[in-house]
Task: inverse folding
């Protein structure tokens, strides 16, 4: 047990020091607290969990088990419209944690250019339970629409990735990428004109409802979850993603021009070491 504790301690220490970017102190910075690349190192630790924890695999399997159960219910009650599933891609059924590690080890954050270079490779891997679920749905005649905020320029790499692992592709119109707006609501509405959407799968709450669109604050997002609580585990199937997402943007109040030091400071100071008093 002592050896295990020492090993874990070493891993934690590595996770918070390996990607530290040297900082040159100036007169104005001399009294500034150093946060040691909290965000970048946190992404390595999140990816470490995603890649190695059996608990993460269990959560993914659990999500797709519930999805299959709900799909069978919907099939038994089928109406006039053909049934459809609307699913996100990244961290919903494809694992991109490798990209996060590659960037964090360089002390860098996400950029569209580096992300596009990653998706062009088409090498993200399946999450546990996803292949079985989507192929089961397709075998039952259910239409699967992949609705993603990858841009149209990323179509070739995305298709290659889906084909690499034999995810069901039921036509070019079933892979719907982003053209302009990040909201998926209009794309969902277009699908709903001809199909009965019985399940939505995603890792971000904007994958499910327009209530989470338009840069909602943390409190507004929590209130929307309360409004829609009956849908989670029923029509909405959420996959865990502690590495990135709209929750992260909300935490930074959607200020995309913050420096890394400012982001690290927000994270460090927002993390609670005691429950708040009510």
Result:
């Amino acid at each position: 047990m002592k050896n295990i504790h020492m090993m874990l301690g070493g891993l934690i220490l590595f996770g918070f020091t390996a990607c530290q970017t040297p900082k040159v102190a100036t007169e104005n910075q001399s009294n500034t607290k150093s946060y040691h690349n909290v965000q970048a190192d946190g992404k390595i630790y999140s990816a470490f969990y995603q890649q190695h924890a059996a608990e993460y695999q269990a959560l993914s399997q659990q999500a797709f088990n519930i999805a299959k159960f709900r799909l069978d219910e919907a099939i038994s009650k089928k109406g006039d419209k053909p049934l459809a599933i609307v699913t996100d891609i990244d961290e919903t059924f494809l694992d991109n944690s490798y990209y996060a590690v590659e960037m964090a080890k360089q002390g860098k954050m996400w950029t569209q250019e580096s992300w596009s270079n990653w998706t062009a490779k088409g090498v993200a891997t399946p999450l546990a339970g996803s292949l079985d679920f989507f192929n089961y749905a397709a075998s039952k005649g259910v239409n699967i629409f992949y609705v993603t905020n990858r841009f149209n320029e990323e179509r070739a790499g995305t298709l290659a990735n889906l084909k690499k692992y034999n995810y069901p592709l039921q036509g070019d119109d079933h892979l719907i990428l982003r053209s302009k707006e990040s909201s998926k609501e209009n794309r969902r509405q277009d699908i709903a004109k001809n199909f009965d959407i019985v399940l939505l799968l995603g890792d971000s709450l904007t994958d499910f409802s327009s209530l989470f669109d338009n840069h909602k604050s943390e409190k507004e997002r929590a209130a929307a979850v309360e409004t829609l609580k009956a849908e989670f585990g029923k029509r909405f199937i959420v996959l865990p993603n502690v590495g990135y997402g709209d929750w992260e943007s909300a935490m930074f109040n959607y200020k995309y021009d913050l420096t890394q030091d400012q982001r690290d400071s927000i994270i460090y100071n927002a993390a609670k070491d005691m429950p708040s008093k009510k």
